[in-house]
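Schema walk-through. Below, the input block comes first and the output block second. Nothing else is stored per chain. Lengths vary across the set, and this one has 286 residues.
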Amino acid sequence: AYGAYQQGADFERPLPGLPWVAADETVVPAPVRQVAIMTGVLMFADAADRSAAGVALAKQLHRLLDESPTLYGTGELVTDVLWLLLRVQARADAQQLVDHATRVLGRTPEMAVAEAGLALYAHRPAVVLTVLEPLLATPRCSSRSLVAAWLLVAVAADRLDRPRKVDDACEQALAQAAAEQLTRPFLDVPEAAELLARIGARFGQYAALVDRIRAHRGATAGAPQLTDTELVVLRQLPSGMTAGNIATDLGVSVNTVKTHLRGIYQKLAVNARAEAIAQARVLGLL
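--- output ---
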């Protein structure tokens, strides 16, 4: 099921025979706890309250890191949960998870990807390149982590207006993803799918993979088409930040944020922030 998830393929719902571990259980074998977290990642999109689900997964992962840090696959599970936390704007929880994992696991390639993910989310694209370029010069990580690293570089280079680097990084990401047909990193890394939708026609040799990624990105075909910037603003709304706070965080004026909010409300056919958040969750935009 987890392999299907990484390839963007369907898997059986509900997941039969997989254990779920309550957060307050005290004696649980580490592999069972790991599978429980994986199950939570798989079922995240179906959660009634995704914010609560993301925080619960982080709590279980903190415990797994304390109890069995050497369990194979834990590092990649950290990045999987990180993307979910960032999706629901749980920035503090995401930072705590990465800090904890780095202390326990060390500066692994997976932790470099996680650090770069946080830097991109914090609008620090130059830091993304600083963190990942040494890793990509001598890659020693899994295909999933390598694809995510190249995508983070591509998005960071796009923000820094370095088009040649964008093209090179996207091509490298597609080349690494093609063998295993990995689509999940393109959906997880912030703005990666949108970037590929804009420039994907340049990579004809990977046309089939690009089409698959576009199909999964467009799974909510009936959803309003928000611009990339509107999506960035929308994803700040569950945090409770004011328009002024969002403007400061994004480095733009308050009037710019208010303009984007009006566009979001109009496209979602709502009149208030709470309604926008609720509708966005229904449509799968949050």
